[in-house]
Write a structure and sequence with these properties.
The chain is an alpha/beta fold and about 475 residues long. The protein is built from 15 helices and 25 strands. The longest helix is centred in the N-terminal third of the chain and has 25 residues. The structure holds nicotinamide-adenine-dinucleotide (NAD).
């Protein structure tokens, strides 16, 4: 079994208590790696190290070009260690290696490069004033950033937080999810190798409540909290942040709606709909898990979906042909299974899909569920797609918006006016038209309602990870 540690102040170490936990490969059911359980002691030490590095160390004082050079070196090392990083996530949480290596590693490296470049070149506002003064804005690093991450895109979502925080001159304490801890330690090892000074990027392992997660988010010496995870956890973390008046960014759950109009390019809509809900076995906050299809094409569309779902290769995530692996853990499998088992009782019909050994749920397509079924309203976070016919544009907009979540929606239509008109009326953070999951890192990312608070990405990340300071200068002599 491999052993991983916390990384605090540039050193990899175990917990003072010597308490540990193991990560179980969800496909084999075997433990494969061991991690220390961090608590208040380790969090205190990591926050103190990050504070020292911020207050006294070179990182916030470097030129942006110097930081950029080091972060680029870090990104190069991430790519050089693609296999190791990808296998770590795949063993921890069962994601097919084609996705961890083909998508998550390159996007992790891209996040570091993008934010390093963005911080180095983004101009700040200068405001000429009529009074003979001018004002300008300085974006000062905020300080110590606490980052708490989920298990579904481990390294990629960690980098989405750590990269902008570092690029803007902050120091970081990261608490990775207990179901996917390995890649965080590997990232921190690579950061040291890339030349990040000690204390700039720290990792503390552990759980949420009464453990490292809670200790970190309640810590009074933290200047920003960035969290991605469940909406219920987001509420707890928002309350912890409120006690210290710490600014917090929350990227939470979703129930992505996918709308296919009768004027859609059907081949394109089928291909993206399948990808939207079955990528990473549906364990995606953005998953297009509720699909609304115009009634005139509903039956044909369902038949096409079923054929595509049944053609997917399900099995060992370490095999390069595999498209759907196991769910991330037994606990999570049991949750998804309870939704699967209650489909018929809720009025639905399973057109394709089944439960297999090895924590696998085969791609499942369900029709006939009423709008108020839990499967249509709650985040299942598994490969279960509900399909519902709709009649008019107004009806489907109302249905999509009738959700506690508002992270994203997809719409498929070849009618340009309709696409813009509908996109404008959906209460979500991102609308994809005729596609899914395509990202421009400059664009705002986040959700409304139970899907989160705040936006990250490009200058939105700058607003969160810095303290904008106004400087007002007199140019002319006072009269
Ligand atoms: P989770 O909320 O259970 O855990 C996320 C992290 O929070 C873990 O590191 C956990 O240890 C920590 N945590 C749990 N309780 C805590 C507490 N009381 N205090 C401090 N930390 C605590 O979420 P998960 O199951 O790991 O991830 C899946 C969820 O994440 C889904 O709801 C999914 O939609 C959401 N998600 C959202 C986005 C987005 O960008 N909006 C992206 C990916 C995942």
């Amino acid at each position: 079994m491999e052993t991983f540690g916390h990384v605090i102040d540039g050193r990899e170490e175990q917990s003072e208590s010597a308490e540990s936990f193991t990560s179980i490969d969800p496909y084999t059911g075997e433990p494969w790696a061991q991690f220390p359980v961090g608590g208040a002691t380790e969090v205190d030490r990591a926050v103190a190290a990050a504070r020292r590095a911020f207050a006294e160390g070179p990182w916030p004082r470097m030129t942006r070009a110097e930081r950029k050079r080091i972060i680029h070196r870090f990104a190069d090392l991430i790519e050089a260690h693609a296999e190791e990083l990808a296998l770590a996530d795949t063993r921890d949480m069962g994601k097919p290696v084609t996705q961890s290596k083909g998508n998550d590693v390159p996007r992790t490296a891209d996040n570091f490069r993008f934010f390093a470049d963005h911080a180095a070149i983004t101009p700040a506002e200068t405001l000429p004033m009529d009074s003979g003064h001018h004002a300008y804005t300085r974006y000062e690093p905020a300080g110590v950033v606490a980052a708490v991450a989920p298990w579904n895109f481990p390294m990629m979502l960690e980098s989405w937080k750590v990269a902008p925080a570092l690029a803007w001159g902050n120091t970081v304490v990261l608490k990775p999810a207990e179901d996917s801890p390995a890649s965080a330690t590997i990232l921190a090892r690579l950061a040291i190798e890339a030349g990040l000074p000690p204390g700039v990027f720290n990792v503390v392992h552990g759980f949420g409540p009464d453990s490292a997660g809670e200790a970190l988010t309640r810590h009074p010496d933290v200047d920003r909290i960035t969290f991605t995870g469940e909406s219920t956890t987001g509420r707890v973390i928002a309350a912890a942040a409120a006690a210290n008046l710490t600014p917090v960014s929350l990227e939470l759950g979703g129930k992505g709606a996918n709308v296919v109009f009768d004027d859609a390019d059907i081949d394109n809509a089928v291909a993206w709909s399948i990808r939207a809900v079955f990528t990473n076995a549906g364990q995606v906050c953005l998953a297009g898990s509720r699909l609304y299809v115009h009634q005139s094409i509903h039956d044909e569309f369902v038949a096409r979906l079923v054929a595509a779902a049944e053609a997917m290769v399900v099995g060992d995530p370490k095999e390069p042909v595999t498209q759907i692996g196991p769910l991330s853990s037994k606990t999570h499998y049991d949750k998804v299974r309870s939704y699967f088992d209650s489909i018929e009782e809720a009025g639905g019909k399973i057109v394709t899909g089944s439960l297999d050994d090895g924590l696998i749920v085969r791609p499942t397509v369900v029709i006939g569920l009423p709008a108020d079924a839990p499967h249509q309203r709650e985040e299942i976070f598994g490969p279960i797609l509900t399909v519902t016919p709709f009649d008019t544009e107004a009806d489907v907009i109302r249905t999509v918006n009738d959700s506690p979540y508002g992270l994203n929606a997809m719409l498929f239509s070849e009618n340009l006016s309709r696409a813009h008109r509908v996109a404008a009326q959906l209460n979500v953070g991102t609308v994809w038209v005729n596609c899914f999951f395509i990202r421009d890192l400059r664009a705002p990312f986040g959700g409304v309602g139970d899907s989160g608070v705040g936006r990250e990405g490009g200058s939105f990340s700058r607003e969160f990870f810095t303290e904008p300071k106004a400087v007002v200068m007199q140019i002319d002599q006072a009269p």
